[in-house]
Amino acid sequence: MADKKTRHERALEPETFILSVLMAAFAAIICMQIISRIGVTPNTSIIGAVVAMALARIPLASMDKFRSLERQNLVQTMTSAGGFAAANCGILAVGIIYLYGAPALIIPMLIGSTISTLIGMSFVYSVYDSDMYPGEAPWPPGVATGQAIVAGDEGGRKARRLVEGIAAGAIGTHFGLPMAGVGIVFIAELFSMIALGVGLIIRGYSSQLFGLDLGTTYVPHGFMIGAGFVSLIQALRIIMRGTDSGKAEKSNSKPTRTVSPAQFKRAALIHLGLYLGGAVILALISGIVADLGLGTMIIWTVWAGVSALLAAILTGLAAMHSGWFPGFAITTIFLTVGLFLGFPGVPLALLSGYVASAGPCFADMGYDLKTGWILRGEGQDTEYELKGRKEQVIAELIGGIIAMIIVALFMNMHFRLDMLPPVSRVFAATVQAGAGEPGIVNQLLIWALPGAVLQAIGGPNRAVGILFATGLLIINPIYGIGVLVAVIIRLIIGTEPMEIREAGLIAGDGIYGFFASIVQAFL
What we know:
The chain is mostly helical. It has one domain (9-522). The protein contains 22 helices and no strands. It has helices at 14-37, 44-56, 69-100, 106-127, 140-154, 156-174, 179-185, 190-204, 206-210, 219-241, 247-250, 261-286, 294-322, 327-340, 345-356, 360-375, 382-416, 422-433, 440-458, 464-473, 477-493, 501-522. Helix 2 runs antiparallel to helix 3 (69-100) and helix 16 (360-375) packs antiparallel against helix 17. The N and C termini lie far apart (44 Å). Mean pLDDT is 84; it is low at 243-253.
């Protein structure tokens, strides 16, 4: 497609901007409803792409501009940013404070959530296509959206395969089958998906397998702490060594990295500073400075900033390899440690909302950047890729701001109707309960060891330990079964027969889930 490109589309061009803003606001309203009623959010990225593709087919001269694949990419980027930020960051964070019983802190929490969300978007933009987050990495929902846009543009065999996949994805989802998970298996790294599937099955059937519900223990948390610690060490080694095990140099077919190890290190330090600054602002505007001594205030600020950075990094790794963004599960880890550090209830509740807002849009923009990377020729033209990436981050940041405005406008309605995300209730209840269990630290330390070993064995390019721990933290055994069945099918038939169809499965699952969720949310 590089030969078709003459200039970049701009996120702020009137046609693109107006449609994108409307789509972002619509996605924000709908996704707030869906996460409050259902507990999860659909893939709004593919919805934005479908709308842009549909407009391009309208036989009017004013709609011709939407035939541009980059314009479609910008529309879906702002759309997904609006939906993800409003649901997974904004309403979730203020919901924690409301349920905890501190209504005076709702506005400070919304401001803190906005800061954390926007920093997460900026962070992934700064480190995308580094050794740690390479452009050619799976980022499965991004691949699915990119392939869908290309297939819709080119038509023919690709379009037929896409339609077949969408139909199968929608039908399978209607009958409760994890079609997105099946599609992701044919895109993602195989061992990563096996680890995720096994973890999901063990968690889902732990009572039958071991006579113990893992959800009542801190075993999954320990695994994630150990795997996360080793993953960070692996990341530091990559940064210091300047290559991801030499793979980038061994393959001449892969493009040169646009983010060097030195640039990654600088970006991480800058965004750590930003997260720390955001924590200071949140502490000041919430008034918790008056409730904490100087020493505790310093510890809280440092822990909030470091936790937000680590949550973004770990959530991004899981999202990149598997298409899952376990932001809430990872936030639980940092909340648990905060309990042991002795923070009072209100600072803990604010910590939860701040950290929970750091990861989801890191993952979301990673998907969108992957889509753009595909549409712009997979990094073959570095200058063009970087300019296009810049337009995307503008669209993403605007989408995030629109999302938070929508949250501010509609959150009181959600409070009155008691329509709040289930995860908000979990965090609020955890903070209210406090530590209470002296043996928790021992559990975390004991189970951190196998998590660390598993991550070390899998290596930095697979995130096996992180994804196994992710599976242990989430109750969805059917998804795990679907993943492992798809792994077996992939081993038998390979990936070629599913090319484009796997994107259709993910798109079909997302489209059906989106409209089905709307029906459930508003009935």
